[in-house]
Amino acid sequence: MSSVFSKLIDGASARYGVRQETLTRSVAGVATALYLLKLTYPHVLTRLKQSTQKKNNQSHSEHNRNNIVLRNNSSDNSSTENGGGKKQRLSFGLDRDFFRQLMMLLKIMVPGWRTREMGLLTCATLTLLTRTFLSVYVAELEGQIVKRIVLRDVHGFGLMLARWFAIALPATFVNSAIRYLEGRLALSFRERLVKHAYKMYLSQQTYYRVSALDTRLGGAEQRLTDDLSELASSVAHLYSSLTKPLLDCALVGIALISFSHKMGAKTIPGPLLAAAVIALTGQILRFASPKFGQLVAEEATRRGKLREAHARISVHAEEIAFYGGHDTEHRYLNSAYKSLVTHLHRILAVKLWYVMLEQFLMKYVWSGTGLLVIAIPLLYNTTATSLGSRMINADSDNGVSERTRYLTTSKNLLSSGADAVERLMSSYKELVALAGYAARVSEMLDVFKDAALCKYRRNIVTSSSRSFLNGNTEFAEKVIEFNNGTPIIKGIVRESTDGSISLINVPIVTPNCEIIVSNLTVHIKPGDHVLITGPNGCGKSSLFRIISGLWPVYDGTLVRPAEKSSSKHIRPALFYIPQKPYMTVGCLRDQIIYPAHSRSENCSDEELLQLLDDVDLRSIVEREPEGFDTLGDWDSTLSGGEKQRLAMTRLKPRRRKESLC
């Protein structure tokens, strides 16, 4: 086959007057290009199909979003502010917003100078400073050891080696202390953040408002758990990874300048060259750095969606089993997981090229620069009367051992300095990732504050052509007023002194701003027994939510009974039994007296037995070996009817005067 190909090449060369080498190279180049085209064509085709499909999906989603209409006189403002149009995306970068958010979070994590966190930061700083001094001392000690080896000084070598082993014990303790203090700082920061977030989340019904009335978070579980933990760990780790490299660079630079001066060389060119190379490397890496903050925030969001999918199956396992919906839930789980995996593949692909560039600059370019910095004092020793020259001339080997000591010490110091600068460069990625966590946690705290002030934002999915109960769409539009896409709460809530409940011209409006009843007026006096009936969706449960304070009063006046602890709970003296009774964690006694605690509620067993007799549930206590103190998973232990009747026992007369069922 090769001979046939050679004859063809020779014939073509003679016929067209082209050199054989040129013709052979052209044929080889064309063959290589065709082979590469064969390999890359399927991938390029796949990419084009994915791009086309993505554009179609975007256009389809834009079409769907255009069908989403906000109830506002100005559709442009509402679509921009309230998220009815394009969804607002947070920017995750090292900008002014990031530093503002970080300062706000740092005030939460370190509330003052005389705090435990400040003490831990002081100890960590002193430990890092000690580790830097130890690094310089160990580098100089290793240079002395190499010098004794070159001089064949057995006694001096043994003495230096003994010092080296003696310094190893405090050095290892300091290294361990750095990791210990970093872990303590992370835990302390997380504890501060968790206490602050939990206090906001579990006050003034914020936990209900951010899930039912506001759609900005989409579920606070991920942010309250993983995001808070990652934020605290990132801040603690960044303090160590920024403080120690800065100290190392300062002290190592001073030590290198001192050694260069002793060797009789100029002290300016070497450090100036190193600083120029480091600055240029930093600019290149900053220009080529991907948006790690946005990638990390998107990863956290997709992890949260996957967790929500698993939680939904756990909560509704029985219903899914009855309907046989495991295949559908399987598709949902696979969709959430594939979304996360696709994003992780994207992160890995982005990191591949960035890490390659980073390693090339930091490992090879910096190593070559370090060799130049070390070689300059040895190759261009111009000061013959310097201290270094006197030391060299004093040695019996014409300064070979002294130069070897200098080379070893400088190499170790440069290695420590390069490692410090590399950690500073690498910390940029961690800082951008911190920006993502800080943005998500700050947004969560801002939403909590807005929810406490009854300021909500959500995607309002309603049809502009919907007809209301009075058949007048224009009148219904005027029931709710908007300000930049946010519905204005104009209703007045008062407390009655006689225990009565009154609604005067109060509209029943869902969180999606769907108006169920445009105007409702009703008066309920103490002692009245009122039964409200009607078809599904007419507003029976919605009325209870408005009276209980779960939903805002957009217009009119609501008068409800006062409660002594209303300033603490921000809810009326009503007891609402939901359609699905809630079973708390604890013993049987806790289920009956909920929401009080068994330690604070002084209820005797006789009183509790009387309550159970009223609903015919004494058998529950009798069948449990420990009676009211029995612990268990009551949500799965009790049947649906037992849970409904057990919830009725919470209507203790001396605790609640009015009840809504």
TrEMBL record:
<dbReference type="Pfam" id="PF00005">
    <property type="entry name" value="ABC_tran"/>
</dbReference>
<feature type="compositionally biased region" description="Polar residues">
    <location>
        <begin position="50"/>
        <end position="59"/>
    </location>
</feature>
<dbReference type="GO" id="GO:0015910">
    <property type="term" value="P:long-chain fatty acid import into peroxisome"/>
</dbReference>
<dbReference type="InterPro" id="IPR036640">
    <property type="entry name" value="ABC1_TM_sf"/>
</dbReference>
<keyword id="KW-0812">Transmembrane</keyword>
<dbReference type="GO" id="GO:0005778">
    <property type="term" value="C:peroxisomal membrane"/>
</dbReference>
<comment type="similarity">
    <text>Belongs to the ABC transporter superfamily. ABCD family. Peroxisomal fatty acyl CoA transporter (TC 3.A.1.203) subfamily.</text>
</comment>
<dbReference type="GO" id="GO:0016887">
    <property type="term" value="F:ATP hydrolysis activity"/>
</dbReference>
<dbReference type="GO" id="GO:0042760">
    <property type="term" value="P:very long-chain fatty acid catabolic process"/>
</dbReference>
<dbReference type="InterPro" id="IPR003439">
    <property type="entry name" value="ABC_transporter-like_ATP-bd"/>
</dbReference>
<dbReference type="InterPro" id="IPR011527">
    <property type="entry name" value="ABC1_TM_dom"/>
</dbReference>
<keyword id="KW-0472">Membrane</keyword>
<keyword id="KW-0813">Transport</keyword>
<dbReference type="GO" id="GO:0005324">
    <property type="term" value="F:long-chain fatty acid transmembrane transporter activity"/>
</dbReference>
<keyword id="KW-0067">ATP-binding</keyword>
<protein>
    <submittedName>
        <fullName>ATP-binding cassette sub-family D member 2</fullName>
    </submittedName>
</protein>
<dbReference type="InterPro" id="IPR050835">
    <property type="entry name" value="ABC_transporter_sub-D"/>
</dbReference>
<keyword id="KW-0547">Nucleotide-binding</keyword>
<dbReference type="GO" id="GO:0005524">
    <property type="term" value="F:ATP binding"/>
</dbReference>
<dbReference type="Pfam" id="PF06472">
    <property type="entry name" value="ABC_membrane_2"/>
</dbReference>
<dbReference type="InterPro" id="IPR027417">
    <property type="entry name" value="P-loop_NTPase"/>
</dbReference>
<feature type="compositionally biased region" description="Polar residues">
    <location>
        <begin position="66"/>
        <end position="81"/>
    </location>
</feature>
<dbReference type="GO" id="GO:0140359">
    <property type="term" value="F:ABC-type transporter activity"/>
</dbReference>
<dbReference type="GO" id="GO:0006635">
    <property type="term" value="P:fatty acid beta-oxidation"/>
</dbReference>
<feature type="domain" description="ABC transmembrane type-1">
    <location>
        <begin position="124"/>
        <end position="362"/>
    </location>
</feature>
<keyword id="KW-1133">Transmembrane helix</keyword>
<dbReference type="GO" id="GO:0007031">
    <property type="term" value="P:peroxisome organization"/>
</dbReference>
<feature type="region of interest" description="Disordered">
    <location>
        <begin position="50"/>
        <end position="88"/>
    </location>
</feature>
